[in-house]
Amino acid sequence: MNGKIIIIGVVVALLLIPVMPNVLAAGTITIEADSRYYKPGDTVTLSGTTTATKVNISVNDTQGEVWKTAATSTAGKYTASFNLASGAYIGVYRAKANDGTNKATTTFTVSDITPTDLANNMIKLVEDAQTRTETLFKQLGTQGVTLLPEATKDHDQGVTELNNAKSLLTQNHPWEALAAAHNAMIHFRDAIWDAWRSAKVDKVETQTADSVNATIQRGQDVVQKLNSTIIKLAADGKDVTAAKVDLKDAKTQLDSAAASLKANNLVDAEKQIDTAKADLQKVIQDLKPLASNLAHEGILKFLNAAETRTDNLEAQLRKLRNANNGVRVDAAIAKLELAKGKINQAIASLTSGKDDAALKDLQSANNDVTAGIGNVDSGKISGNLSNINMLQAKIQFLQRTEQQMQKWGMDTKTIQSQIDTLQAQLTQAQQTTTP
Questions:
Q1: Which of 221, 357, 364, 375 makes an SS bond possible with 328, Cβ 3.0 to 4.6 Å?
Q2: What pLDDT shows up at residue 261?
């Protein structure tokens, strides 16, 4: 299952490119797309309102115009559709409507995988978890085990959240469906744990020393992984004092359980294991805010790096002032100055906890940088810059995912390999961007 979750996490990076919401002009014309996300080959339908009888519509990606048409309005409303090419550019598209007097714009994203795909994949994983949970319940029932109330409660909550996820997806709310499916997965996980605890409480006297020893070993493995996470957070200057204390308590309980097992006292060993589990949960709660702050700091570093890259690009453009396209270079530099201002706004928004505003400012800055480069060349630099932004977004997301996996004690070798590959691609793209 971990492999599936990693794959889903990787493709989410393509959907994390900031997308501006639909913008309705202050005049007498509007435009909107029938979805925020499309795949290559999908049909895009644009519609809106106007007081004019004819509306000119155009759609651009960051490489240039990809489609345009003229639509006739009926009763103040118009609609136009077009098909994306099978090899359509992956990224943010901007649609514009112009009735000769008023203008309006909106944006949408083209990606290899949509939020609906992600939600569907997650729901399938949760359905598998539900099946495994109910199979375990039946197996324990045939053995005469009475389930703890917590096991049944977690199962029922999982079913409720899963049905909620399916309903939200039907209502075209994929992100909310994804969140509900994630909650369902947590409930089914807890239900399985409580089911095994039911077996131990109900038939502790029949447990074998091997099964108890295996439980202790798993707990000790978790202690080691959490300790590695604590060491990494401490190296980043985080206060991990509380986590260390709780982890020490968990280790003490597991050591005591091992001693009880050696003395063939399974009842005490079970109690000590349960106490260790509670201590490990405390450790996780201690580390959650620290890991969250670390990811937040990573985003700030990304924004600061974006500002540095913009400064470097501006310096390169200034070297072109004496070339034949000097006027166009001046226009590009002006755009970069606007971009730097918006990056600073994004940093300020992020620092004050306004994440949505920060993403909007970063998207606007990216548009200014792209427009500025477009004043200098015919798309070579801007195309490569778009690729750089995409790679940086993927790397940033994978790094945050890696931190989360480490916090959960999961193996991160595969995701680290992916990060290394993207870093190599990024270095090559940056080298070819220099004018």
A1: 375
A2: 82
Q: What's the pLDDT score for residue 302? A: 58
51: Cβ–Cβ under 8 A, 6 or more apart, which residues? 28, 29, 76, 99
Higher pLDDT, 300 or 28: 28
Sheet with 54-61, edge to edge strand ranges: 37-38, 103-110, 91-98, 54-61, 64-72
Q: What is the 3-state secondary structure (H, E, C) of 33-90?
A: ECCCEECCCCEEEEEEEECCCEEEEEEEECCEEEEEEEEECECCEEEEEEECCCCCCC
User: Mind listing the pLDDT tens digit for each residue in 69-85?
Assistant: 999 888 899 999 999 98
The structure's pTM equals: 0.34
Run of H or E including 374: helix 355-374
Rounded distance between C-alpha atoms, residue 151 and residue 162, angstroms: 16
d(CA 167, CA 123): 11
How many Å apart are CA 115 and CA 118, to the nearest integer? 5
CA distance 278 to 272: 10
Model confidence over 350-365: pLDDT tens digits? 566 665 666 666 667 6
CA atoms within 13 A on the CB side of 69: 13
Residue 66 phi, psi (nearest 5): -115, -15
- Are 18 and 363 in contact, with CB atoms under 8 Å apart? yes
- Scan for tokens 């405390």, then name that residue: 282
CA distance 214 to 216: 5
Question: What is the rounded distance in angstroms from the CA atom of residue 392 to the CA atom of residue 33?
Answer: 27
- Hey, what amino acid is at 389? N
- What does the DSSP assignment read for 238-294? ---HHHHHHHHHHHHHHHHHHHHHHTT-HHHHHHHHHHHHHHHHHHHHHHHHHHHHH
* Crossing angle of helices 266-318 and 380-407, rounded to 10°: 160
Position 19 pLDDT exceeds 60: no
DSSP string, 142-188: HTTPPPPHHHHHHHHHHHHHHHHHHHHHHTT-HHHHHHHHHHHHHHH
Give the chain's largest Cα–Cα span. 89
Task: For residues 352 and 19, give the distance between their C-alpha atoms in angstroms, rounded to a whole number.
Answer: 21
Between β-strands 91-98 and 54-61, what pairing exists: parallel, antiparallel or unpaired? antiparallel
**Residue 283 corresponds to which amino acid?**
V
Write down the domain spans for the chain: 2-110
